[in-house]
Design goal:
Elements lengths: L8 E9 L7 E9 L1 E6 L11 H13 L3 E6 L2 E7 L5 H7 L4 E3 L2 H12 L45 E5 L11 E3 L5 E3 L6 E2 L8 E5 L5 E5 L4 E3 L2 E2 L2 E3 L5 E4 L2 E6 L36 E2 L5 E2 L1
Parallel strand pairs: 3-4, 9-10
Antiparallel strand pairs: 1-2, 2-3, 4-5, 5-6, 7-8, 7-17, 9-11, 11-12, 12-15, 13-14, 13-16, 16-17, 18-19
Length: 297
């Protein structure tokens, strides 16, 4: 014969139950280990005939887990549920060997409540949550299918931006943020989208290509990404774009940053990332800068 599973609980829960046209029932469940105490304000609240089947099922479930619940009112023991064994004469009254009456008052309360016309208090089976496999254990499937998720944002979003890094930021001062649009100019000429002193009039340009990639293109002046000189470079979140003596940090929300497939991080998730499937119909832009704000192929 298998022994019941023992569950350990640390409980301190107060509750109240409002019933239409009747007084509010209050109670407190407390205890540790597998021995709990339930104090109720109404000794016959859950002893009605409408709740009898639910109470019996609850008692059996508690017994399967080795839990004993002592129900009392004003420190008078009414009944015990769960890991108990009721004598035969009590089983005829309660219909369960897992419900043991604790006193004459408990027996009287149970008998009076069963013959009274009292509405059920416990929820019906339709309100119960789905059952949980017991004991709880992981489920392994050698052919588990992974739902495909990518960072190919169809809305081409992710709030791409460049943040100007400043070494002399005063308390309360915020770093300048430039929200990106295709064709933005970085330079010193008046009216530049990102106007910075000490640069060429048109130092570099930002391009949003058809692959939803943000690219920095050097025009007239040294442009570096992470310290390496570049002529054309795709930007990823965290990239440091250096133009003259200025540093701009590229940021894009993770859900749209292609450098982090499946919401992963370089070096994270045990250091292994699943590559994304290719975007449909990719086209690499090989255009050249013609001195205007447009590209020519």
């Amino acid at each position: 014969m298998s022994r019941p599973t023992t569950t350990t609980i640390d409980a301190d829960l107060s509750f109240s139950l409002e019933r239409e046209g009747s007084t509010t029932i209050t109670g407190r469940l407390s205890g540790q280990g597998n021995r709990l105490t339930l104090d109720v304000s109404d000794p016959g609240a859950f002893a009605g005939a409408g709740d009898a089947a639910g109470i019996r099922a609850l008692a059996e479930s508690l017994a399967d887990r080795g839990i004993k619940v002592r129900v009392q009112h004003d420190e008078v023991h009414l009944v015990s549920l769960g890991a108990v064994r009721a004598p035969w004469w009590q089983r005829r009254a309660t219909g369960s060997r897992r419900i043991r009456l604790g006193s004459l008052r408990g027996a009287w309360t149970s008998a009076r409540s069963r013959v009274s016309d009292r509405d059920p208090v416990l929820p019906t089976a339709a309100m119960f949550p789905p059952a949980t496999l017991w004991p709880i254990a992981p489920t392994f499937s050698p052919r588990a299918r992974r739902q495909v998720t990518t960072t190919h944002d169809p809305g081409r979003g992710g709030s791409p931006r460049l943040v100007l890094e400043k070494a002399d930021v005063w308390g309360g001062e915020r770093q300048p943020v430039f929200w990106l649009e295709d064709g933005m100019i970085i330079g010193s000429r008046p009216g530049s989208d990102i106007e910075l002193p000490g640069l060429s009039e048109v130092h570099a340009r930002l391009h949003h290509d058809e692959n939803d990639e943000w690219v920095v293109i050097a025009i007239d002046g040294a442009t570096r990404v992470h310290g390496a000189a570049v002529e054309r470079q795709i930007l990823r979140t965290g990239a440091r774009v250096e133009v003259g003596g200025h540093v701009l940090a590229f940021r894009r929300d993770e859900h749209a940053d292609h450098g982090r497939p499946y919401y992963g991080r370089v070096g994270g998730e045990l250091g292994r990332q699943i590559p994304q499937p290719p975007r449909p119909g990719p086209r690499v832009d090989t255009g050249e800068w013609d001195g205007q704000d447009t590209m020519r192929s």
